[in-house]
Amino acid sequence: MSMQLVTTVAGLHAESARLLNATQGRSQGLVPTMGALHEGHAALARTAVEDNDVVVASIFVNPLQFGDAVDLDRYPRTLDADLELLEAQGVDLAFAPSAEEVYPGGEPLVRITSGRLGEKWEGASRPGHFDGALTVVAKLLHYGMPAAGLRAGSAGSAGGSLPAYRAYFGQKDAQQLALVRRMAHDLNFPVEIVGVPTVRADDGLALSSRNRFLSDDERDAALVLSRALRLLEERANAHEPLDLDTALAMVESQPLVQLDYFDVVDPDTLEPLAENCRETPFRGEALALIAAKVGPVRLIDNVPLSS
């Protein structure tokens, strides 16, 4: 069955309900994206397809999370290629609304606030970014909820219980993933948030829609980000001190890279770890975060650490 494309919330509700009713589906997955899709998004879609009976993927460039109008205009729009990629992964339904459909009447007067968790790291460098991101994610989570449009008792297990609901986000955007999980928990969203590991190119660079803006020299320089993270990962796996100073010096030695932040944090609170393991063996769970501008392009990356 070919993938369907809808552009309105009403169409999304009607078509997802039809698919669940037709298949007696017990689960629905949502893959929120901003388009310009690559293999990292394909991994999200494949994971959702493996986990669920019906999968919806959204494509929406959210103006609320861009602080710079030029950056918003520059963001690549590749709808036809995006639809081909999603259909190849087995996605059932693509939702590609206009800004007017998502924000009727213009920018919303009330938004989700990211709170203290959204004020650090990316939030410190891009004020308001996470408030805009969480606002649209909240709307998309409501739009994609399998309860919308279903007839009582028409889908799910015996007795008409609602299908399970899951939403998929990439680990590359680690702070966004942590925030979405907290929002779903703190505001009682009836959805399981699933993190999918970062997908990397053969040279180690984390896949990103922004990579296409790197020159050849800039892309070579950007590889220092993943190399520095890999150094910390190797030392954590060996139960050695993380030696963040050496990894930091590695990044700062690359003249095309302008470092924003690089630290090891708690994976849930994103607070810098009090015991930074510079001199003592690493133990426990952590997340190494890095962000930098390479030429005109801002890149982020991270790696989970465990021992």
Report on this model:
With 307 residues, the chain is α/β, with parallel strands linked by helices. It has helices at 9-23, 39-51, 69-74, 79-89, 99-102, 122-125, 129-143, 174-186, 216-237, 244-252; strands spanning 4-6, 27-33, 54-59, 93-95, 164-170, 192-196, 257-265, 285-294, 297-306. The protein has a six-stranded parallel β-sheet, sandwiched between helices. A three-stranded antiparallel β-sheet has the order 7-8-9, covered by helices on one side. The longest helix has 22 residues, at 216-237. The N and C termini lie far apart (45 Å).
Give the % helix.
25-40%
**Total E-strand runs:** 9
- Please report which band the strand proportion falls in: under 5%, 5-15%, 15-25%, 25-35%, 35-45% or over 45%: 15-25%
User: How far is it from the N-terminal to the C-terminal residue, by CA?
Assistant: 45 Å
Radius of gyration: 20 Å
| Overall outline | globular
Low-confidence stretches: none
Major sheet attributes: 6 strands, parallel
The average pLDDT value, as a whole number, equals 91
Structural class assignment: alpha/beta
Strand order across the largest sheet: 1-4-3-2-5-6
How many helices in DSSP terms? Answer: 10
Run of helices and strands: EHEHEHHEHHHEHEHHEEE
